[in-house]
Amino acid sequence: MVRARGLIVLTTAALVAFACGGTTGGGGSKGTIKIGSDLPVCTIGGQATANGVQFAVNQKNAAGGVEGYTIAYQSFDDCRQGAYNADAGVDNVRKMLDDKAFLGMIGPYNSAVAKAEIPIAAPQHFTMISPANTNPCLTKDIAGCSYHPQDLRAGNQNNYWRVVTTDDYQGPAMATYAYKTLGIKNVGILDDSTVFGVGIAGSFEAQFKSLGGTVAKHSEYKKEQTSDFKSILLGFKNAGALGVYVGGTDDQNICIPRKQMKDIGWAVPFMGGDGIETSDCIDQASGNEPNIYATSAGADATQVDGAKQAIADFRKAFTGPNDFGGYTMQAYDAANALMAAIGRAVKNANGMPSREQVRAEFAKTTGFKGVIGTYDFDQNGDTSLKIVSIYIVNGGLSDQAIKDSTGVCGSKTKNACFVWKTQFDFAKPA
Amino acid sequence: MSLPDFGFYVLCATAVVLLAAQAVIHPTEFVQVFIFGLTQGSIYALVALGYTMVYGIIELINFAHGDVFTLGAYVGSGILGFFAISESGFTTVNLIALLLVFPAVMLIMGGINVAIERVAYRPLRNAPRLAPLITAIGMSFFLEGVMFLWRGPATVHFPDILPKTATTIAGVFFGFKDIFVVVVAAILVALLAVFINRTKLGKAMRATAQDRDAAQLMGIDINRTIAATFFIGALLAGAGGMIWGLYYNTVYYQLGFRSGLIAFTAAVFGGIGNIPGAAVGGLVIGLIAAFSDSYIGSKWTQVVVFGILIGVLVFRPTGLLGMRVPEK
Fold it and tell me: Which residues of B fall within a CB distance of 8 Å from A235?
């Protein structure tokens, strides 16, 4: 069903794009500029993110478009077999590059997809703004990366920016929270053997150890090989762990161990990155949902005063229970920042700008006022907003609490939801 | 004693000594991990039986079998949705639902597997060996596709309807579920053994496995016998799917590929075509996986399982209990 809904929205988006294209002639608009998004819209999180772009574009068009141009938005799906796929992403970027009207894109959602797409988009000066990529290697040349940002861009000027901060902050934020606030001094770490999972688990481990914590054991698994985690968990427990940190994503079954912790009678907190801050994770935890802690690289828009109005407006336009997600407002800000750059480029070019002009304008972005905060970007493409949020799953919530909840809820266990707990701002000196 | 036999016994002895050492040093952990392995292995055993029975009778590696197992869990989860079951405690409704749905899923999967045989394998019975192998792979993808379209890519919740009673005895934690898995699997395997050895149809199966043409000359309806083999294999796969769901409470559409591979390995491990062999093979692989996860490290588990498989097959090419395939 998730996939089917994605297709429907995709079709709707295409229809909207078509309709906009159709009205431009009659409305006296100068023409149509297309922006795309490349997101795994077969997943709830991906679709909720695409909704943010759609919302920003709808608002902009309703207010007269960008410097007289109508923005047509097309949502591309980078899912294959129900999970994000880098090849599908590359395919989508090629489709956008083949159409001269596309001047930029929002996405991708997954860092592994960005790694494959940047080398395709960079030589064409195609602006990419990710609302959700958190792998530091995409922008920073740091130890532990298997690739370098300059290689991805192959000598071209930077064409990639992101509005969220990086995993090298996500892991440390949870490590600090676990050690200092929860008082957990010994953890077991489990990663799912993916680029994302290994990266975030490593950054957690480094920070946790530097604070003085002990890592009882660091294990890894592969989705296609492990479905019974009880032996691994018992190993953690016997080694004295008082918490479990997982590096991974729900599509790799990262939250099934949470359920199995109950099966071995082990009740300690279960922590992870944004890959577990999902409905599917709550479903996988099946009966053991409470006390799952997750970080999210980026602010919780619902906790930011500046975003309250935009969210209220969004909820009026998108009324489904899963339409709003952890990256919807990030996508909204990203889309608005991109359209602002397009607007400046249109002004400078006094007409339809080139992709390079849009890229160059985006690179000059300073003090962009989004709903989450004011964004500056460094030359690598990283944002000055270095906020990491921490969520916890609470079970047995009342209907009102669910309605007010900022995080996602389970699709099976509807009264277990992620609830915002606190945030770390790494931009401010500690 | 021949050299291969010697090698095999050395291998077994080493494993036993290493495990015994662990058992002495950390007895509670050893028993706990043993229980994990036993429950996992019981499910693998049920699935492995289907592989081995089909291979024994028509020498086909039925790649779709793992997906029949997964589909069993999907169907079970779907049907249970119609009952007013409680996931917070064990109610009478839960018991009734369990008693109705468990055999129903087994029968449905049996029916589906017979249909698969009729459509994808029977027309190719006299075709070159590779042809039905490819249709088997095709069926596997087809079933995965059906599950994908039905419930989507995410993990599917299977209702948690068994009693949640759990207890700790001498530091070892186990629950009703663990006992349920092992006992139900053992009962099913015992029933199968009685069926194969004591009934007329079982005898017909053994005869068909030994020599299809001769069996036919003796008046055995080959088509019916082979269909029955697929039916019974899928009964066990369906039961395996139900047990998996009840135990783990989560299924996903690609589960069959991995479980199927492990179960197939178990069948070869025990001696393909050999029914007790498949049951033993399943249990042994479950135990190896659990011990490896615990003592060596989860990233090595697959390496360990297949390393041991290579070792066993090199020294004992017919598997642990010996192969029982048609003598020609």
Answer: 293-294
Task: Note whether B32 contacts A234, CB cutoff 8 Å.
Answer: yes
Q: In the prediction, which pLDDT does A411 show? A: 83
- Give the pLDDT confidence score for residue A429 in this predicted structure: 55
Nearest residue to B38 (alpha-carbon basis) of B236, B246, B178 = B178
* Beta carbons of A103 and A127 less than 8 angstroms apart: yes
Please check whether residue B242 is in contact with residue A248, taking contact to mean a CB–CB distance below 8 angstroms. Answer: no
Contacts (Cβ under 8 Å, ≥6 apart) of B316: B4, B5, B8
Enumerate residues 6+ apart whose C-beta is below 8 A from B163.
Answer: B89, B90, B176
| Burial of B84: CB neighbours in 10 Å, binned 0-12, 13-18, 19+ | exposed
B177 to chain A: which residues are within 8 Å by CB? 263
Residue A30 confidence class, pLDDT cut points 50, 70, 90: confident
Q: What's the predicted TM-score (pTM) here?
A: 0.76
Q: In this structure, which amino acid lies at residue A90?
A: V
Q: With contact defined as beta carbons under 8 Å apart, do A328 and A195 qualify? A: no
Structure tokens at A179: 């050690």
Q: Do B248 and A228 touch (CB under 8 A)?
A: yes
Size of interface A-B (CB pairs under 8 A): 108
In order of their start, the domains of chain A are: 2-165+304-375 (3.40.50.2300), 167-297+387-425 (3.40.50.2300)
Distance CA B311, CA A218 (A): 29
pLDDT for the residue A42: 92
Residues in chain B, overall count: 328
Cβ <8 Å between B160 and A231 = no
Measured CA to CA, the distance from residue A13 to residue A33 in angstroms comes to 15
B297 → closest Cβ in A219, A263, A280: A219
List domains and CATH numbers for chain B: 3-315 (1.10.3470)
Instruction: Indicate the average pLDDT of chain B.
Output: 89
CB A245 within 8 A of CB A188: yes
**What is the nearest CA distance from A398 to chain B, expressed in angstroms?**
18
For B32-50, the pLDDT digits (tens) are: 999 999 999 999 999 999 9
Q: Which residue of B has its CA nearest to A222?
A: B299
Nearest-by-CA chain A residue for B172? A264
For B182-196, what is the mean pLDDT? Answer: 94
B173 with A235: Cβ contact below 8 A: no
- B234 touches B113 (CB < 8 A): yes
Contact B293 A235 (CB under 8 A): yes
User: A-side interface with B, Cβ within 8 Å?
Assistant: 1-3, 42-43, 79, 81-83, 193, 219-222, 224-228, 230-232, 234-235, 238, 250-251, 253, 256, 259-260, 263-265, 280, 283-284, 286-287, 412
B145: nearest CA partner in chain A:
A81
DSSP summary character for residue A381 = S
Scanning A264-381, the segments in alpha helix (DSSP H) are 279-285, 308-317, 328-349, 355-363
pLDDT score recorded for residue B116: 95
Q: How much is the average pLDDT of A54-73?
A: 95
Q: How many CB atoms lie within 10 A of CB A399?
A: 9
Q: How high is the pLDDT of residue B323?
A: 64
- How large is the average pLDDT for residues B191-204? 92
pLDDT recorded at residue A19:
46
Mutate to test the interface with B, among A81, A262, A286, A409 (most CBs of B within 10 A): A286
